[in-house]
Amino acid sequence: MHQMTGAIPPVGRHHEVGGRRLLLHRSGSGSPAVVFLPGAGSSGMDGYIVHRRVAELTTSVIYDRGGTGWSDRVELPRTCAQVTDELREALRVAGVPAPYLLVGHSLGGLYARHYAQRFPGEVAGLVLVETEHEDYDSCMPRELNELYQAWDPGEALPDELPDEIVQFYRDLFAREMADWPEEIRAPLIERHVSPEWLRIGGQEAANRDRLHDEVRTAGPMPDIPLIALTATAIDPFKEAVTQGIPRSLLLQEAEAKTRLYTALAASVPHGENRVVGDAGHASVIFRRPDAVVQAVKDLLGGLGG
User: Fold this and answer.
1) Structural domain that includes position 291
2) Which end of the chain is more exposed for a tag (fewer CB within 10 A), N or C?
3) Domains: count for the chain
4) pLDDT at 1
5) For 82, phi and psi rounded to 5 degrees?
6) What is the pTM of this model?
7) Mean pLDDT, rounded, for 211-220
8) C-alpha 237, offset from chain centre
9) pLDDT band (50, 70, 90) for residue 33
10) Cα 62 from Cα 190, distance rounded (Å)
11) Residue 14's pLDDT is what?
12) What are phi and psi of 55, to 5 degrees?
């Protein structure tokens, strides 16, 4: 069963995909098309500034997965196969032909990799921004993993958040999106601070172990260029969700994930990891769109785009 969302998106339109309406916004022209896959509980609209700049270079697409953002609600969590099948059909329905350059943030990065594994002939390159990775936990200090596992954001959220918490996060997003068009910025911030969207983030990632297994068993990565972006800053978003965790552990996490993403890039013939030292996991899309756009430009240049 799925539930229709009554919200009108600030940009883009709904497309009928698999019996539900998905938000998809397409701009620009050219090939390969760049497709942005957002993180858990987020919206393709988070990549709007990246999208707007990429659309000056080639076709650019932002979208919301079923169950998230401005798309119809579906039961969560879902499998990688369900998400990648849905994305493939959404692009077909919207008339966006392959090949694609996939830009995946956080959980979206895992989905992007799985898409490339399943449909290697349709993917020209990958930009993986702070990507979810199946070996992430095993690379981290045991104490840090135990502290993270004790925190369950999806189930612990009440139907209404205290006003001071809502305002805290509203201010955080407002600072990161200060120069955004107001017609995008205002509705996006209000939804990001809603219990519904925060809960969706936890629900989407609730089956991480199964998603990791899907990627492990989906076959080798195709020989396509890949740029990983590692955001190492302990920014206000990171501080907010890691209260009580020693800073020394967070610094160890940054070092460990840099090694992990460097190894990921080295696992393909044409891979590179770039460290973004002035942004964190959640803020990198808002704070450093230029780093994401530059990675896209570099891959397009190498592809002759």
Assistant:
1) 2-303
2) N
3) 1
4) 46
5) -65, -45
6) 0.95
7) 96
8) 15
9) very high
10) 19
11) 97
12) -65, -15
